Structure formats: structure tokens, C-alpha cells
């Protein structure tokens, strides 16, 4: 006869073990070992494994926007290589993760939370990297501005085309209203981001010659980007508001 006390203890142990297993993310542990061992072959296996396992769904885990492929929105499903959740193109970032045997970087696609986790992990494993943290931050800012500009160059003419179509053919407005609003929100978000970056004053806060030069180049790049894309972005946003919200 089975002792009920022993049975209860066994069940409790199994429950605790399952809880512990859930707390340990096997993919995070795998990627941590890759970093520790600097193993590029294992990294390629890691990336292939993530391609084989894809979740079903049509909504971005972060912004909750629909990620069905729409040609005029240039949106599609993107999977974070670490957490394997679904994200839109705006909520994932491809980074240079590790150099291979030919000194070429292997890229990995990460969501915001996993990107932060990986960077913190890199600094823990190799504290010397913290010396270059400002340079990394400047490079990330440059990439963010560049991605923002690319998005605006794509979304502004698309929204402008839809607005012109609906202005000349009012019967199309109901059909395209949701897409117009999505594009409007994305453009407004990117415009706000560029305005926030303009107000930042810490790009030139370092006396190091290289970092100071990087900061100056970033400010110049931001100025060029803003002068080139902001006027047309504001114009199409105003047209959209007039189309959607005029009485």
C-alpha cells in the first residue's frame, strides 16, 4: 500500500520542479553558454532552431498591432530569436552579435526586452565592454534614427497616396480608414522620436576625441534627417487629420 504522506511529498516535489523549470529559460541559458564559449557554430544552430519553431498569431507582442502582411504597410511577422514571440518590424532590432571565423558579424534579431537582457549579459561576462558603452549607445542611437528615417520614407508616401485616393473618392474612406489610422500613428510615433532625439544634449558629454566626434556626426546626421523628412511628415499628418476628423 502506498503511503499517502510519501505520495503527497512526491506530488509536491514534482510541482516544485515544474515551477523551477519554467523559471529557467532554456534558450537564454543556451545563448549565455554561446557567449561564454564564443561558439559561432553553436550560435548558427541556435538561430536555425528558432527558425523551425514559429508561433501562430497575427499581433505584435509589444505594440499589439496587426502584423499580417499588407503591401502598403510593409509589415510582416518577425520573431525574436530569443523569446520567439511575434513582433512587428518596429518592435524588433537586428544586431551584430558575434564575429565568425571570417571576422564577419552574425546578426541576431531581438525584441526590446531581449536586446536589453543580452547587452546586460555581455557586460557581466566581459566587464571591459563597459568602457565602450557610450560608443555602443551612440551607435544604437544612430541605428534608431536611421531606422526611423527608413520607416518614414516608406510610410509617408504610402499614407499620402491613401489620403489622396480617399479625398478624390470618398467611397473608399471606410475601406481604408483603419490602414490610414495605423500609418498615421506610426508616422506620428517616428516624428515624436526624432523630436525627442533633437532635445537630447548628452551626445557631446564625453571629452574623448573619438566619442566626441561620433556625437557631432550623430547630431549632424539627425539635423539632415529632420530637415529632409519632417516637413513632408507634418504635411501628410495634417492632411490625414483634415480627412478623418473634419466635421
Automatic annotation (TrEMBL):
This protein's UniProt keywords: Metal-binding, Zinc, Zinc-finger
Q: Does the keyword Zinc apply?
A: yes
Gene Ontology terms for molecular function: zinc ion binding
**Domain named FYVE-type: residues:** 54-119
* Sequence intervals crossing the membrane: none
Could you tell me what this protein is called?
FYVE-type domain-containing protein
Q: Which organism is it from?
A: Plasmodium falciparum Vietnam Oak-Knoll
